[in-house]
Amino acid sequence: MNFAVLQFPASNCDQDAVHVLKNVLGHSARLVWHKENSLAGIDGVVVPGGFSYGDYLRTGAIARFSPIMQAVQQFAGNGGPVLGVCNGFQILCEAGMLPGALIRNRSLQFRCENVFIKTATSDSPFTNKIADGKVLRLPIAHGEGCYFADDATLNKLQSNRQILWQYCSENGDLTEGANPNGSLLNIAGICNEARNVAGLMPHPERASESLLGCADGKVIFESLIHWLENRSLAKAA
Amino acid sequence: MELRCIRVRKKLACGRRFAQHRARVKAKIIVTPKKAVLDPQGKTVASALEHMGYKGIGAVHVGKYLEIELSGTDKEAWRKQIDDACHKILSNPVIEDYRFEIE
Q1: Contact between chains at B38 and A108 (C-beta distance less than 8 A)
Q2: Is B41 on the interface with A (CB under 8 A)?
Q3: What domain count does chain B have?
Q4: Is residue B10, in this structure, part of any structural domain at all?
Q5: Which of A41, A94, A217, A221 could disulfide-pair with A64, CB 3.0 to 4.6 Å?
Q6: How far apart are CA A136 and CA A114, in angstroms?
Q7: Span A3-9, mean pLDDT?
Q8: CATH number for domain A2-236, candidates 1.25.40.10, 3.40.50.880, 3.90.550.10, 3.40.50.2300
Q9: Residue A31 · residue A11 · CB < 8 Å
Q10: Which of A30, A49, A50, A33 is nearest to A41 (CA)?
Q11: Model ipTM?
Protein backbone atom coordinates (compact mmCIF):
# COMPACT_ATOMS: atom_id res chain seq x y z
CA MET A 1 0.00 0.00 0.00
CA ASN A 2 1.06 3.59 -0.64
CA PHE A 3 0.64 6.03 2.20
CA ALA A 4 0.96 9.80 2.27
CA VAL A 5 1.93 11.49 5.51
CA LEU A 6 1.21 15.20 5.24
CA GLN A 7 3.78 17.72 6.35
CA PHE A 8 2.87 21.25 7.43
CA PRO A 9 5.21 23.85 8.86
CA ALA A 10 5.64 22.65 12.49
CA SER A 11 4.28 19.15 11.99
CA ASN A 12 5.73 16.57 14.36
CA CYS A 13 5.85 12.79 14.50
CA ASP A 14 5.44 12.88 10.71
CA GLN A 15 8.74 11.00 10.34
CA ASP A 16 7.60 8.53 13.01
CA ALA A 17 4.44 7.78 11.00
CA VAL A 18 6.48 7.20 7.84
CA HIS A 19 8.90 5.00 9.82
CA VAL A 20 6.12 2.82 11.23
CA LEU A 21 4.32 2.38 7.91
CA LYS A 22 7.55 1.75 6.00
CA ASN A 23 10.04 0.05 8.30
CA VAL A 24 7.79 -1.60 10.87
CA LEU A 25 4.90 -2.62 8.62
CA GLY A 26 6.71 -2.89 5.26
CA HIS A 27 4.58 -0.58 3.15
CA SER A 28 5.41 2.43 1.03
CA ALA A 29 5.02 5.80 2.70
CA ARG A 30 6.17 9.29 1.79
CA LEU A 31 5.94 12.77 3.20
CA VAL A 32 3.69 15.11 1.23
CA TRP A 33 4.40 18.83 1.68
CA HIS A 34 1.35 20.98 2.39
CA LYS A 35 1.88 23.02 -0.79
CA GLU A 36 1.40 19.97 -2.98
CA ASN A 37 -2.03 19.49 -4.44
CA SER A 38 -2.23 15.89 -5.58
CA LEU A 39 -2.60 12.54 -3.84
CA ALA A 40 -2.46 10.50 -7.05
CA GLY A 41 -1.57 6.87 -6.42
CA ILE A 42 -2.11 7.13 -2.66
CA ASP A 43 -4.15 4.50 -0.78
CA GLY A 44 -4.23 6.08 2.67
CA VAL A 45 -3.45 9.45 4.25
CA VAL A 46 -2.07 10.25 7.70
CA VAL A 47 -2.42 13.82 8.96
CA PRO A 48 0.24 13.98 11.68
CA GLY A 49 0.57 15.83 14.96
CA GLY A 50 2.36 19.06 15.70
CA PHE A 51 1.55 22.73 15.90
CA SER A 52 0.86 23.55 12.27
CA TYR A 53 1.29 27.26 11.52
CA GLY A 54 2.08 27.82 15.19
CA ASP A 55 -1.54 26.93 16.02
CA TYR A 56 -2.24 30.63 15.37
CA LEU A 57 -5.90 31.67 15.58
CA ARG A 58 -6.99 28.14 16.61
CA THR A 59 -5.37 24.73 16.36
CA GLY A 60 -5.59 23.51 12.77
CA ALA A 61 -7.44 26.64 11.60
CA ILE A 62 -4.84 27.76 9.06
CA ALA A 63 -3.59 24.33 8.02
CA ARG A 64 -7.04 23.35 6.79
CA PHE A 65 -6.71 25.93 4.00
CA SER A 66 -3.40 24.48 2.75
CA PRO A 67 -3.45 23.40 -0.90
CA ILE A 68 -3.04 19.72 0.04
CA MET A 69 -6.19 19.79 2.18
CA GLN A 70 -8.36 20.22 -0.92
CA ALA A 71 -6.84 17.03 -2.28
CA VAL A 72 -7.46 15.32 1.09
CA GLN A 73 -11.14 16.39 1.04
CA GLN A 74 -11.47 14.98 -2.46
CA PHE A 75 -9.61 11.79 -1.52
CA ALA A 76 -11.90 11.26 1.48
CA GLY A 77 -14.96 12.13 -0.60
CA ASN A 78 -14.02 9.23 -2.89
CA GLY A 79 -13.88 6.87 0.08
CA GLY A 80 -10.12 7.02 0.76
CA PRO A 81 -9.14 6.46 4.40
CA VAL A 82 -7.69 9.44 6.31
CA LEU A 83 -6.30 9.20 9.84
CA GLY A 84 -5.61 12.38 11.82
CA VAL A 85 -3.37 12.18 14.87
CA CYS A 86 -3.38 14.94 17.51
CA ASN A 87 -2.98 18.16 15.49
CA GLY A 88 -4.18 16.09 12.51
CA PHE A 89 -7.42 15.41 14.41
CA GLN A 90 -7.76 19.14 15.11
CA ILE A 91 -7.18 19.96 11.42
CA LEU A 92 -9.81 17.43 10.28
CA CYS A 93 -12.35 18.95 12.71
CA GLU A 94 -11.54 22.48 11.52
CA ALA A 95 -11.94 21.30 7.93
CA GLY A 96 -15.41 19.98 8.77
CA MET A 97 -14.32 16.45 7.82
CA LEU A 98 -15.05 15.34 11.39
CA PRO A 99 -17.76 16.79 13.64
CA GLY A 100 -17.03 18.84 16.77
CA ALA A 101 -13.90 20.68 17.84
CA LEU A 102 -10.92 20.33 20.15
CA ILE A 103 -10.54 23.04 22.75
CA ARG A 104 -8.16 23.90 25.59
CA ASN A 105 -7.67 21.10 28.13
CA ARG A 106 -9.96 21.63 31.08
CA SER A 107 -6.93 21.77 33.41
CA LEU A 108 -5.34 24.43 31.17
CA GLN A 109 -2.21 22.27 31.34
CA PHE A 110 -0.27 20.76 28.48
CA ARG A 111 -0.50 17.01 29.13
CA CYS A 112 2.40 14.80 28.08
CA GLU A 113 2.01 11.25 29.40
CA ASN A 114 0.77 7.76 28.62
CA VAL A 115 -2.99 7.22 28.74
CA PHE A 116 -5.29 4.24 28.33
CA ILE A 117 -7.96 4.21 25.65
CA LYS A 118 -10.72 1.72 25.08
CA THR A 119 -11.78 0.80 21.57
CA ALA A 120 -15.52 1.26 21.39
CA THR A 121 -16.13 -0.52 18.09
CA SER A 122 -14.14 -2.64 15.69
CA ASP A 123 -16.40 -1.51 12.86
CA SER A 124 -14.07 0.93 11.11
CA PRO A 125 -11.00 0.87 8.85
CA PHE A 126 -8.92 1.94 11.86
CA THR A 127 -10.14 -0.53 14.50
CA ASN A 128 -11.10 -3.71 12.64
CA LYS A 129 -8.21 -5.72 14.10
CA ILE A 130 -8.86 -4.49 17.64
CA ALA A 131 -11.24 -6.48 19.81
CA ASP A 132 -14.24 -4.45 21.06
CA GLY A 133 -13.44 -3.06 24.50
CA LYS A 134 -9.71 -3.71 24.15
CA VAL A 135 -7.59 -1.24 26.14
CA LEU A 136 -4.54 0.33 24.47
CA ARG A 137 -1.80 2.31 26.20
CA LEU A 138 -0.71 5.28 24.09
CA PRO A 139 1.16 8.54 24.62
CA ILE A 140 -0.51 11.95 24.46
CA ALA A 141 1.12 15.38 24.16
CA HIS A 142 -1.35 18.21 23.79
CA GLY A 143 -2.75 21.38 25.29
CA GLU A 144 -5.94 21.47 23.23
CA GLY A 145 -7.40 17.99 23.27
CA CYS A 146 -10.72 18.49 24.99
CA TYR A 147 -13.30 17.16 22.55
CA PHE A 148 -16.40 19.32 22.36
CA ALA A 149 -19.60 18.99 20.33
CA ASP A 150 -23.19 20.03 20.99
CA ASP A 151 -25.69 17.51 22.39
CA ALA A 152 -27.25 16.76 19.01
CA THR A 153 -23.83 15.91 17.55
CA LEU A 154 -22.90 13.76 20.56
CA ASN A 155 -26.17 11.84 20.26
CA LYS A 156 -25.52 11.28 16.59
CA LEU A 157 -21.95 10.10 17.28
CA GLN A 158 -23.32 7.58 19.75
CA SER A 159 -26.20 6.30 17.65
CA ASN A 160 -23.96 5.93 14.57
CA ARG A 161 -21.19 4.32 16.65
CA GLN A 162 -18.76 6.99 15.46
CA ILE A 163 -16.91 7.11 18.78
CA LEU A 164 -13.91 4.86 18.17
CA TRP A 165 -11.79 5.41 21.26
CA GLN A 166 -12.48 6.68 24.80
CA TYR A 167 -10.10 7.50 27.65
CA CYS A 168 -10.32 4.87 30.36
CA SER A 169 -8.55 3.45 33.39
CA GLU A 170 -6.09 0.58 32.99
CA ASN A 171 -9.03 -1.77 33.61
CA GLY A 172 -11.12 -0.18 30.91
CA ASP A 173 -13.45 1.91 33.08
CA LEU A 174 -14.51 5.23 31.58
CA THR A 175 -13.78 7.36 34.62
CA GLU A 176 -13.29 11.10 34.94
CA GLY A 177 -9.88 10.51 36.49
CA ALA A 178 -8.75 8.70 33.34
CA ASN A 179 -9.78 11.62 31.14
CA PRO A 180 -6.67 13.78 30.66
CA ASN A 181 -8.28 16.81 29.05
CA GLY A 182 -11.98 16.97 29.95
CA SER A 183 -13.24 15.58 26.62
CA LEU A 184 -17.00 15.06 26.57
CA LEU A 185 -17.95 11.36 26.88
CA ASN A 186 -14.21 10.68 27.44
CA ILE A 187 -13.80 10.88 23.66
CA ALA A 188 -10.23 10.22 22.49
CA GLY A 189 -11.08 9.56 18.84
CA ILE A 190 -14.02 9.49 16.42
CA CYS A 191 -14.78 8.77 12.78
CA ASN A 192 -17.07 10.43 10.27
CA GLU A 193 -20.44 9.03 9.27
CA ALA A 194 -18.96 7.24 6.24
CA ARG A 195 -16.32 5.78 8.65
CA ASN A 196 -13.35 6.45 6.33
CA VAL A 197 -12.07 9.56 8.15
CA ALA A 198 -10.92 9.26 11.75
CA GLY A 199 -9.01 11.33 14.26
CA LEU A 200 -7.57 10.69 17.70
CA MET A 201 -5.53 12.73 20.17
CA PRO A 202 -3.13 9.96 21.32
CA HIS A 203 -0.11 9.15 19.14
CA PRO A 204 -0.17 5.52 17.88
CA GLU A 205 2.91 6.13 15.69
CA ARG A 206 4.96 6.83 18.81
CA ALA A 207 4.03 3.48 20.33
CA SER A 208 4.33 0.93 17.56
CA GLU A 209 7.52 -0.90 18.50
CA SER A 210 8.22 -2.79 21.71
CA LEU A 211 11.76 -1.35 21.58
CA LEU A 212 10.14 2.00 22.39
CA GLY A 213 8.39 0.55 25.42
CA CYS A 214 4.98 -0.10 23.91
CA ALA A 215 3.64 -1.39 20.60
CA ASP A 216 -0.09 -0.93 21.28
CA GLY A 217 -0.45 1.70 18.55
CA LYS A 218 0.64 -0.64 15.76
CA VAL A 219 -2.74 -2.38 15.61
CA ILE A 220 -4.40 0.85 14.43
CA PHE A 221 -2.12 0.95 11.36
CA GLU A 222 -2.50 -2.83 10.91
CA SER A 223 -6.28 -2.36 10.90
CA LEU A 224 -5.97 0.29 8.21
CA ILE A 225 -3.71 -1.92 6.08
CA HIS A 226 -6.03 -4.90 6.56
CA TRP A 227 -9.02 -2.80 5.50
CA LEU A 228 -7.18 -1.52 2.39
CA GLU A 229 -6.06 -5.04 1.42
CA ASN A 230 -9.61 -6.35 1.76
CA ARG A 231 -10.88 -3.46 -0.33
CA SER A 232 -8.36 -4.19 -3.12
CA LEU A 233 -9.35 -7.88 -3.08
CA ALA A 234 -13.01 -6.94 -3.30
CA LYS A 235 -12.26 -4.61 -6.21
CA ALA A 236 -10.26 -7.28 -8.03
CA ALA A 237 -13.00 -9.90 -7.59
CA MET B 1 -9.82 43.92 -1.88
CA GLU B 2 -6.83 43.65 0.32
CA LEU B 3 -6.69 42.63 3.97
CA ARG B 4 -3.79 43.91 6.01
CA CYS B 5 -2.94 43.58 9.65
CA ILE B 6 -2.91 46.92 11.36
CA ARG B 7 0.38 48.29 12.56
CA VAL B 8 0.48 50.94 15.18
CA ARG B 9 2.28 53.88 13.71
CA LYS B 10 4.09 55.91 16.26
CA LYS B 11 4.63 58.77 13.89
CA LEU B 12 1.74 60.03 11.84
CA ALA B 13 2.55 60.68 8.23
CA CYS B 14 2.04 64.41 8.53
CA GLY B 15 2.60 66.68 5.66
CA ARG B 16 1.57 64.21 3.02
CA ARG B 17 -1.07 65.89 0.96
CA PHE B 18 -2.61 62.68 -0.24
CA ALA B 19 -2.89 61.19 3.24
CA GLN B 20 -6.32 62.59 3.83
CA HIS B 21 -7.60 60.85 0.69
CA ARG B 22 -6.51 57.45 1.95
CA ALA B 23 -9.49 57.02 4.25
CA ARG B 24 -9.00 53.91 6.33
CA VAL B 25 -11.79 51.43 6.82
CA LYS B 26 -11.24 49.15 9.75
CA ALA B 27 -12.93 45.94 10.91
CA LYS B 28 -13.05 45.36 14.66
CA ILE B 29 -13.91 41.74 15.40
CA ILE B 30 -14.67 40.09 18.72
CA VAL B 31 -14.67 36.29 18.96
CA THR B 32 -15.96 34.66 22.15
CA PRO B 33 -16.53 31.05 23.19
CA LYS B 34 -20.18 29.96 22.90
CA LYS B 35 -22.00 29.93 26.21
CA ALA B 36 -22.38 26.14 26.12
CA VAL B 37 -18.65 25.56 25.56
CA LEU B 38 -16.39 24.83 28.53
CA ASP B 39 -14.24 27.89 29.13
CA PRO B 40 -11.55 26.94 31.65
CA GLN B 41 -9.66 30.19 31.00
CA GLY B 42 -12.74 32.24 31.85
CA LYS B 43 -13.32 30.22 35.03
CA THR B 44 -9.71 30.66 36.12
CA VAL B 45 -9.82 34.42 35.50
CA ALA B 46 -13.13 34.66 37.41
CA SER B 47 -11.68 32.86 40.40
CA ALA B 48 -8.51 35.04 40.30
CA LEU B 49 -10.69 38.17 40.35
CA GLU B 50 -12.66 36.80 43.29
CA HIS B 51 -9.47 35.98 45.17
CA MET B 52 -8.27 39.53 44.59
CA GLY B 53 -11.33 40.75 46.43
CA TYR B 54 -13.46 42.06 43.56
CA LYS B 55 -17.09 41.60 44.57
CA GLY B 56 -19.90 40.49 42.32
CA ILE B 57 -17.82 38.76 39.65
CA GLY B 58 -20.03 36.57 37.46
CA ALA B 59 -19.04 34.33 34.54
CA VAL B 60 -15.95 35.46 32.61
CA HIS B 61 -15.53 34.61 28.94
CA VAL B 62 -12.09 34.91 27.41
CA GLY B 63 -12.13 35.55 23.67
CA LYS B 64 -10.13 37.26 20.96
CA TYR B 65 -10.11 40.73 19.49
CA LEU B 66 -8.92 41.32 15.94
CA GLU B 67 -8.47 44.59 14.08
CA ILE B 68 -8.12 44.47 10.34
CA GLU B 69 -7.19 47.47 8.25
CA LEU B 70 -9.05 47.47 4.95
CA SER B 71 -8.51 49.31 1.70
CA GLY B 72 -11.22 51.31 -0.04
CA THR B 73 -14.27 52.96 1.47
CA ASP B 74 -17.13 50.62 0.59
CA LYS B 75 -18.17 49.52 4.08
CA GLU B 76 -21.13 47.43 2.87
CA ALA B 77 -18.93 45.33 0.59
CA TRP B 78 -16.50 44.83 3.45
CA ARG B 79 -19.30 43.86 5.83
CA LYS B 80 -20.14 40.91 3.58
CA GLN B 81 -16.54 39.86 3.15
CA ILE B 82 -15.65 40.14 6.83
CA ASP B 83 -18.76 38.17 7.78
CA ASP B 84 -17.67 35.47 5.34
CA ALA B 85 -14.09 35.49 6.71
CA CYS B 86 -15.37 35.31 10.30
CA HIS B 87 -17.50 32.32 9.42
CA LYS B 88 -14.82 30.50 7.44
CA ILE B 89 -11.61 31.09 9.34
CA LEU B 90 -11.56 33.85 11.97
CA SER B 91 -13.98 31.92 14.19
CA ASN B 92 -15.06 28.29 14.46
CA PRO B 93 -18.89 28.29 14.52
CA VAL B 94 -18.86 24.98 16.42
CA ILE B 95 -17.36 26.59 19.51
CA GLU B 96 -17.33 30.35 19.01
CA ASP B 97 -19.57 33.33 18.34
CA TYR B 98 -18.39 36.50 16.66
CA ARG B 99 -19.51 40.06 16.18
CA PHE B 100 -17.84 42.91 14.33
CA GLU B 101 -18.03 46.53 13.38
CA ILE B 102 -16.75 48.22 10.25
CA GLU B 103 -15.71 51.75 10.84
Answers
A1: no
A2: yes
A3: 1
A4: no
A5: A94
A6: 10
A7: 97
A8: 3.40.50.880
A9: no
A10: A30
A11: 0.83
DSSP designation for B75: H
Contacting B with CB below 8 Å, chain A residues are 57-58, 61-62, 65, 93-94, 99-101, 103-108, 146, 148-150, 182
Which one of A101, A105, A108 has the shortest CB-CB distance to B94?
A101
Tens of pLDDT, residues A219-231: 999 999 999 999 9
Domain presence at residue B72: yes
Whole-structure pTM value: 0.89
Distance CA A133, CA A136 (A): 10
Domain housing B52: 22-102
Q: What is the CATH number of the domain that holds B87?
A: 3.30.1280.10
> Cβ–Cβ of A103/B95 closer than 8 Å?
yes
Of A149, A233, A151, A234, residue with least CA distance to A199: A149
Q: What one-letter code names the amino acid at B5?
A: C
pLDDT tens by residue, A200-212? 999 999 999 999 9
Neighbouring CB atoms inside 10 A of B50's CB total 12
Contacts of A149 in chain B (CB under 8 A): 94
